Amino acid sequence: MSKDVYGVFDAHEFFGEFFHNQDDYASRFSAKIKYSPETGLILEYSIVDSDVPSACEILFGILNNGKRCTLFGPFNFNLGGRRFGVINTKYGSHGFPCLVMGDFVSPDKKFDHSRFTFHHMQEFFYPQGHLDGVAYKDGTLETIKGTDWIIEIENRATFNDVTETLMNLIINENGKALKRLSSSYEKIKTAFPDNSFLLRKSLEYLFKYIPCTPKTIKEMYLDILKITSLFSIFMDRPTFPDEVKIFPNAEASNSISLLSSINLESRTVGLAKSNPSHFLMPINRNKIDLSKTISTWFELHDSYRVLSTTFQYETNHRTLHSAYSDVILFSTNIESIAHDLGMPTSDKYEGPINRYGSDELKSAIRNIFIIHNNNSLGKNLSDLRNELAHVGRPKKLIKILNISDYVDVAEILKLVVVSHLLEQIGVARDVIYGYQKRLLPKAQS
């Protein structure tokens, strides 16, 4: 991957000239592209040339950094403002979903593979404060095979040439040892005069995603999003593709960079940019079989899309309305799990909780209700869901529970749903219990 990095959690700004047909540079206009994770990609334009169409699906551009680019729309410049006078001008700001840096690309062009990182990927794989203990390995570290795709995990590193300065970087209190090392190093340099000695500055992990048949940029990016959404669940934080490079050929030449609008709330951006610890992540690289989990996740993704988006777009802020909604959503998910497992209707809540919940989790959710009544957990959850979802039901629990109770109930039910998913993709039961323990609401755990 090249040195040009366009991360989705950084701000970017480019100025350039844009046109709707790569073979017709005459009809062009000046504009600025602005990007932030909150606002997405915005084109600030001023159009004087009357030959520029009012609407188009795609724009090509030459940026002030000398790069070609492609903007995927659609664009409708009639929605902006107009200035009338000696020269009529269209102006305004127009949002768009996707920017390709490095070439003019048609939407239907197929690509061979992509390389990408996601936010906190490096910490997920290895604690960044201990990287000196990891050796750099060239080539593929691990291969993950799906039904119609392959993922290869690779290292990426940056280096400094220390061929002539290495001994300046080494300190030892024993002068004789240091002198012998210096002498030996000079002999090695003499013996291998055409070789350089490099000191590693950084070490990163990245994914190489290879579909069995070439895919368009949109198809490629949707697959990458599926992968990163799983890691959002693993790490319990908003996670999106960060640096994305797409390659037209197997030789990995002439790559393009992809920057997509994610349009997040500022609270979500703050969570995504916080610095998690490898050791405190609910699930990190050491706890799972990546090949099994990712392969199975591709098969299950569509069934758990809503669940994964709750992690990707988390804000850590709840209103009474959102707390009510979460209880209804996750209690419905629990019912669906019970149905899939063949459990009787009378056990549609307690059944999944008893199957997947640790002792701490089961105790935590029971304690929310036990101070208010002696009803079973199943009855309390059924009553609470019905009071929230149906008009005309007596509001007994709603009157005695507070917003913290609703939030805690929803969070615990979500943990049961996630635990069901984790078991399906091959995560061990002790890891699932550790996940629950890490994320149980603090007031109840």
UniProtKB/TrEMBL annotation:
| Entry-linked Pfam families | ApeA_NTD1, HEPN_Apea
Domain Apea-like HEPN: residue ranges? 360-430
The ApeA N-terminal domain extends over: 13-297
- InterPro entries assigned: ApeA_NTD (IPR041223), HEPN_Apea (IPR041229)
| The protein, known as | ApeA N-terminal domain-containing protein
